[in-house]
Amino acid sequence: MSERPIAGFLVDVDGVLHIDGEPVPGAVEALRRLRALGIPFVLLTNTTIRTRRQLGELLRALGFPVQDDEIVTAGAATAAYLRARYPGEPCYLLVDGDVQEEFSGIPLVEDDSAAVVVFGGAGSPYTYERLNRAFRLLLRGAHFVAMHRNLVWERRDGPALDTGAFLLGLEAALGRQAHLVGKPSPDFFQAGLARLDLPAGRVAMIGDSLTADVLPARALGMTGILVRTGRFRPQDLEEGRPDVLLDSIAELPDWLARRAP
Ligand SMILES: [Mg+2]
User: N vs C: which end of the chain shows fewer Cβ within 10 Å?
Assistant: First the structure.
């Protein structure tokens, strides 16, 4: 194991802190101990279901010591990307969740005037009619943007198909790729590092996905910590190795204490 001193954390939310609104055992206490130690953390999440404020409220209601400005979401990052890259352009948005607040000022349309097609988290708005409308807009040359490309997410009632599964089919049919804003896009991790105001070598990313959280963080020079909660499956370890493997985020404070000189 490398012994770079860790001065801050990027923390995945779904599957690490909570699973569909149910806290992971020990997760609240782990973040409280980081807070008590004065170790900064930023939550880096591909969630598109909630705004930063709504997610902050949910996490505080579960007991997590988190402020809204310590949260970076794929939904908010996508809105920022659209404002910078396609200012004023009408967007056709497929998302399961209430992100209107993050998208304030961006014209959202439901007709053929859309110049940008934006995919958020999958759910009931992903009807055949709406997916096919998106397909036709993209065929005609609309810009193709995805908040994330997760294949699966964990709900309380079991695994659920996510955006990436639909993107694969659309990309095959279209012969082109969506521009990715959320994890594993390096820009998204850099946004988290900027919020922490720490260099990558002093930061550890803790997540439940090797491919979305741990490996892209390691590629940028961070320490990658994988937890065996949420969507972790033992066979994931065939795709690469984390620097550290913990049963859950509950073990994080003790792991950090063991590393201290
Ligand atoms: Mg996760």
Answer: C
Please give the distance, rounded to the nearest whole angstrom, from the Cα atom of residue 15 to the centre of ligand 1.
5
Q: Tell me how far the alpha carbon of residue 47 lies from the centroid of ligand 1, in angstroms.
A: 9
Q: What CATH class does 8-46+184-259 carry?
A: alpha beta
> 12-45, pLDDT tens digit by residue?
999 999 998 999 999 999 999 999 999 999 999 9
Q: Which residues contact 218 (CB under 8 A, 6 or more apart)?
A: 205, 224, 242, 243
Token pair recorded at residue 18? 């909570």
Distance CA 231, CA 239 (A): 14
Calculate how far, in angstroms, residue 54's C-alpha sits from the geometric centre of ligand 1.
Answer: 18
Residues of the chain with CATH 3.40.50.1000: 8-46+184-259, 87-180
Q: What is the pLDDT of residues 148-161, one digit of tens each?
A: 998 988 787 888 99
How far is Cα 256 from Cα 55, in angstroms, rounded to an integer? 26
Distance 232 CA to ligand 1 centre (A): 9
